Amino acid sequence: MSTSTPAIKVEDVHKYFGDNKVLTGIDLEVAEGKVVCVIGPSGSGKSTLLRCVNLLEQPTSGKIFVEGAEITDPDADVDKLRSRIGMVFQQFNLFPHLSVMDNLTLAQRKVKGRGSDEARTVARKNLEKVGLAERETSYPAHLSGGQQQRIAIARALSMDPDMMLFDEPTSALDPELVGDVLAVMKDLASEGMTMMVVTHEMGFAREVGDDLVFMDGGVVVEQGDPRKVLGDPQHERTKSFLSKVL
């Protein structure tokens, strides 16, 4: 991929659910190796936008490109393009009946076609990365929410994605567990992982984000350097929102 080609490019994306318009003409780029944080009130369209990027939601109109290839093209190999994108959700979505190791190796074997030994080696490397190397035989029910979310990140990384999407990854966690998950995400950012992060964590956005997008009512209201947007918002709606969350 050319360095000038965005990892993710969203062009004039609209999304309706029935008569309800959730996204209105979104344009957005995520450069390779950069972290874009998306903030905004509940119902602003943040998560819908994120889910449109890998076609978990089909845009009503508009185009989305992944590393220069249009994933919204009817002839696109969506599974192949999706394989470049790791995704971490609010809920951890681990298989409760499988051990941590089996959760991390299942898709590697079924989708990537890796043998058991290779899949386990990759899984162990990523468990170490998220600080949970000692929990490979544990089951999800025996882990805290923060540990489960870090396992979910390790599972996504085990598929060797070029980029990661995070949909409010800390919002279901007790406050004292948030820091460990954010620390893993900070490490990923420092290693150059391309990331698009829907988040409430303004400190993370300020410290780690390269670009901050404030959405409301299905549109991008304000966008720019996180420190500038958070410290000196230009739009009245941004000021109103930040006055309640900072």
Structure described in brief:
The protein is α/β, with parallel strands linked by helices.
Describe the structure.
- The chain is of the alpha/beta class.
- 37% of the residues lie in helices and 24% in strands.
- The protein has helices at residues 46-53, 78-82, 100-110, 116-129, 145-157, 175-190, 202-208, 226-231, 236-245, and strands at 8-17, 20-30, 35-39, 61-66, 69-70, 85-88, 163-167, 194-198, 211-216, 219-224.
- The strands form 2 sheets. A 6-stranded mixed beta sheet has the order 6-7-8-3-9-10, sandwiched between helices. Strands 2-1-4-5 form a 4-stranded antiparallel beta sheet, covered by helices on one side.
- Strand 9 and strand 10 (219-224) form a beta hairpin.
- The longest helix has 16 residues, at 175-190.
- The termini are far apart.
- The model has no long low-confidence stretch (mean pLDDT 96).
Please provide the count of β strands: 10
Low-confidence stretches: none
Structural class: alpha/beta
- Beta-strand content: 15-25%
Q: Which descriptor suits the 3D outline?
A: globular
First CA to last CA: what distance?
38 Å
Strand order in space, largest sheet: 6-7-8-3-9-10
Roughly how much helix do the residues carry, as a percent range? Answer: 25-40%
The total count of helices amounts to: 9
Radius of gyration: 18 Å
Largest sheet: 6 strands, mixed
What is the average of the pLDDT values?
96
Oligomer: single chain
What string gives the helices and strands in order?
EEEHEEHEHHHEHEHEEHH
